[in-house]
Amino acid sequence: MTGLSSKQAAKLMADGKGNTQVSKSAKTVKQIIKENTLTYFNLIFVVLALLLVVSGAWNSLTFLPVIIANTFIGIIQEVQAKRVLDKLTIMNAPVSVVYRDGRPKKMRTEELVLGDVIVLEGGVQIPADAEVISGEIAVNEALLTGEADEITKQPGDELMSGAFVVSGKCVARLTHVGADAYINKLTLKAKAVETDDRSEMVRAIDGIVKLAGIVIIPIGILLLYQSIGVAGNSFTSAVPSMVAAVIGMIPEGLYLLLSVTLAVSAMRLARKQVMLHDMKSIESLARVDVVCVDKTGTITDNAMLVADAVPVRQMNRAQMTRAGDLVSRYLGALDDSNATSEAMIDYFGETKAADAVETLPFSSRYKYSAVRFREGVFVLGAPEIVLKRHFHLYQDEVNGYASKGYRVVVFGQVMDRDAIPENGLDQCDVDPIFFVMLQNPIRENAAQTFEYFASQGVTVKVISGDNPVTVSEVAKRAGIAGAAHYVNAQTLDSPQAIDEAVKNMTVFGRVTPEQKREIVHALQAQGHTVAMTGDGVNDILAMKDSDCSIAMASGSEAAVQAAQVALLDSDFSHMPQIVSEGRRVINNIERSATLFLVKNIFSFLLSIFTIVSIMKYPLTPSQISLVSMFNIGIPAFFLAMESNNRRIEGHFIQRVMLRAMPAALTDFFMIAALVIFGQTFGVGNEDISVAATFLLAIVGFIILYNISRPLNPFRAIVISGCIAGLVVLAVTMNSLFDIQFVSVKCVMLFVLFAIATVPCMQVLTKFFILIDHLIAKRTGRKTIAYENIT
User: Do residues 310 and 451 both lie within one domain?
Assistant: First the structure.
């Protein structure tokens, strides 16, 4: 029981027997540099650059500085984000109470070693495999096995790392640590087996990038063959055209934009004391339309106090004193570590009772605790549970207290019992002694937070283990819409009843941990994206199955470790900032992805047209670089920083593709027609190339304007600056970007097709709106919002 000495622990740590944790997601600086430099597309760019050097087309290398800058920006931003997040992780690492040199002390779980003796109590996640030495605890292994049952562990029993302690207190010795511990073995298996835990947006962008990577090689080879082998052009003239087509098809900045934006977003949230355990949660939060919250710790502060303790029957002063002493003995015998017991200890005091024969710690499943003394069995818990057989006699009194916003518990004696009931109190008569009223102050910013959710179309459901009348009253004070519609979850005895209640009710009281999870499942089955907030072990099951889980760090350690998002200062008013950050990221990436795909789809179609028509590809690499810089790169960078609170709906890839197609096809039709008409009227290839560059830029600015509507001063400055920048570079650095004066014939053709771009895009947009409506009608989903591109 004295544990290890500091000298023994240091030797074990040096021998590699420390509790080093295995992370599924953390990257080293070396990995970040490798992932940003040794990429498939960077290899393609190097090959293309070598071909241009061999062919002597030096001015076509203008894309290289952009690629190099993108790589360095990606590395710097991700490393900076890593440092901020690592610092936050260390500062908020889980700690354990461990015996060292015969004395208990708090240490980070990663500093534990094999053989350490630790103390475990309610709300703690077991840091490594262990064996119980003394005491008794109830553990839940749902995060490991999926089974929600609470398992009692006594001396000699094994404890699995990753499980969490529901109640009780024990001392245990660590038997397996680090990579040998059960939870880390699971993590290593998960890393070894390819599991697709990416978000929808990341999967979609990965798919686009992979498809482009597959297509560019055969098209590049065909373009070279067509130009040299069929058209008879020289190697020197064929290479720049092929490189221009291939560069146009590569979404070189899209994946960079995604990784950098997510990393920066995580860093921004970290500076607001919000820690993400999972990058996927950013997108999940952006899509959330239902937030399930607990009352205590979310709507109210964690600090709990006893407002009053009312004897159920008339008592004189001596009887009140004896009853209070009994409660004090009860609290001292139970050794529960939760907010309710701590508040009652502050009020009644705590007397370490040596005559306690048997104890049952509080469980959120049973909603009461019990102690057996020589004079009988006493219980403390929810009145509806403890007084179940005769609750109707006390219901009006309890509801009266609850309607004032108090949480009510009853302390009483189980009659005619010489042992704690094994199967609940359903068949027991309980003589109530005290009704104890507890209260938590409502959080200062709760009303503003819930007002924000209402304005954003996010529904709030309050799910609590407390009396539904109490929860409803607190929810009303916090300004939650529909708070008057409440239900006692004890009456929800079937999946159909839960499903119906989820549709019509806002407040759920007397909910068990299993029912919390069932409510989340019912909401998901109805098509909602659900976020679950919580601070205790009773919330973990529902948090685990929700689309996004948010924990208050002031609650149980197990809840924080199980959640995707942890509010380290336990301030629920950060939630609007988190949701806004998620929406900003996804909306802006979706907008930028549309710009990238316009270029990629257009380049692919024009390459196929060039191969089939045996014509020369009309654009050069430097011209593609010029247009990409001002149509895509610069605006995507600036627009990605803008706030955007539009709620995310629909599938990412469908929205992006259907928005990009009208502009991409307009680009293709206009430039393909320009090439055909130019050859028909004897316009030179160089003139057509310049005209095609400006046509491409015009369509690019039209789609940029459309996806930026409604315009605000910031967006107007970005678009105007990009137009001005393109014109200035085209004039001052015309030779670098292959821009020259063109013939009158070419100018007339250019004006004609420039005028035709707007009606062409309008017709194509209406066509794709029709396609979208037909798909929506067939699949039953909502149509994609086209209000910004028509």
Answer: no
